[in-house]
Structure formats: structure tokens, C-alpha cells
Specification:
Blueprint (H helix, E strand, L loop, with lengths): L2 H15 L8 H23 L3 H30 L4 H4 L1 H18 L6 H26 L8 H8 L1 H19 L4 H20 L2 H4 L12
Length: 218
């Protein structure tokens, strides 16, 4: 597949998946902030029941996320005055990306002394998923030209939907049968990996050059 064809298909699937063509606005900062606060609350509640090194590492993650949230708030204040600066427009989407890796590290600490090894495994799984996701969308998008818009979106995101359902299923089964909490952590990591490509589409709202490159008849 040539570079030109790859770029064309990349623009095509962006044209399908990026349904919000508006520039970054305050609402994007609000949503990123709410996700940050939810994660901080989750880490704080779970940390109450942890002991020793796991508790210490969990509190480090929480403190790091609090600093991350304060930076997001500062960027939001600056955005009110300098909303045309692209660096500030990138903050909400970048916030999700940083939070994803924070969650991967937090999830790894429940695996004891081997937490760094599991953290690396989670990162490799996440990066592999993002790459497979991108290649799948670039290969399949040209075959969806005459499908309805909703069908296009569902087909392009089918693997994310399946992974989200599997993660939710693992979480429900873990709760119903009182299984090890590690399964709940794995479900949370899987959900985060599945949702990351959707959050990354926020970058397409900042860098909009692709909109002038989409096919006239799509």
C-alpha cells in the first residue's frame, strides 16, 4: 500500500469517525476534568483498603493525577483568553492519553513485586491494539463507501465494541461470583485500552487539514 493511498484511507476513516467538526471548546475541558476526578476518586477509595507498598504506590498515582488535574485546570483558565493557541487545544485529548498510562500503571501495582513487568505488558498491549486498530480501519474503510453512516461507524469500531463488552462481562462475572479483584483490574485496563482510540480522535479537531483532503463523494 503506497503512502498516498494510506493517507487517503486515513482521511477517509477520519471523515467517518470524527462526527464533531467543531473546534475544541470549554465542554471538552469539562469532560476531561470529570474523567480525571472520577479516576482520583476511584484510586482514593481503593487505596483505603490497600496496605504496604501497594498503598504507597497507589497514593503516588493519586498525587500525580491530582497534579495532572491542576495542570488541566490551569490550561482551561488560559484557554478562556487564548483559545486560538493549538497547544492549549491539545490539552483535553492529551489529558485522556496521560490518564490512560496512569491507569495502566495503577492497575499494574495489584500484581505485587512484578508490577513493573505488568506495566510494560499493559503498555505493549495498548500500543499493539492502537496499531491493529489503525491498520484495520485503513484497510476496511474503502469497502464501506455505500454503507449508511451509522453502519460505517459500527463496523470501524466493532473491535472496540467487542473489547468493551468483554471487559464489562468480566467485571460483572467477577462481582457476581466474588472472584479475585485482579479480574476487575484487568477489565478496567481492557476498557481503557478499547476507549483510547476514540479519545485520540480529539486531535483531529485540532489539526483539521485532513478535512480538505477527503473524497468529494463519500
Amino acid at each position: 500500500m503506497g503512502v498516498y493511498k494510506m493517507k487517503k484511507r486515513y482521511y477517509e476513516f477520519l471523515n467517518v469517525l470524527v462526527t464533531d467538526c467543531n473546534p475544541i471548546k470549554n465542554l471538552d475541558f469539562y469532560k476531561a476534568g470529570l474523567v480525571e476526578l472520577f479516576f482520583i476518586s476511584l484510586v482514593f477509595i481503593v487505596s483505603i483498603f490497600l496496605r504496604g507498598e501497594m498503598h504507597h504506590l497507589s497514593m503516588i498515582v493519586m498525587n500525580f493525577t491530582i497534579v495532572h488535574t491542576l495542570i488541566l485546570f490551569l490550561a482551561f483558565l488560559l484557554f478562556q483568553k487564548f483559545f486560538d493557541i493549538k497547544a492549549l487545544q491539545l490539552i483535553p485529548t492529551s489529558s485522556y492519553l496521560f490518564l490512560h498510562f496512569e491507569l495502566l500503571f495503577w492497575g499494574s501495582i495489584f500484581f505485587g513485586e512484578n508490577h513493573l513487568a505488568f506495566f510494560m505488558i499493559f503498555i505493549i498491549l495498548s500500543l499493539s491494539y492502537q496499531l491493529i486498530n489503525l491498520l484495520y480501519q485503513m484497510v476496511i474503510v474503502s469497502k464501506l463507501r455505500y454503507f449508511e453512516q451509522k453502519q460505517k461507524i459500527n463496523i470501524l469500531q466493532i473491535h472496540a465494541i467487542v473489547l468493551c463488552c468483554l471487559s464489562a462481562g468480566v467485571a460483572v462475572i467477577t462481582r457476581l461470583f466474588m472472584l479475585s479483584g485482579l479480574y476487575m483490574i484487568i477489565a478496567l485496563v481492557g476498557l481503557s485500552i478499547a476507549l483510547t482510540p476514540l479519545y485520540l480522535l480529539g486531535y483531529a479537531q485540532v489539526f483539521t487539514g485532513w478535512r480538505n483532503q477527503v473524497p468529494e463523494k463519500w
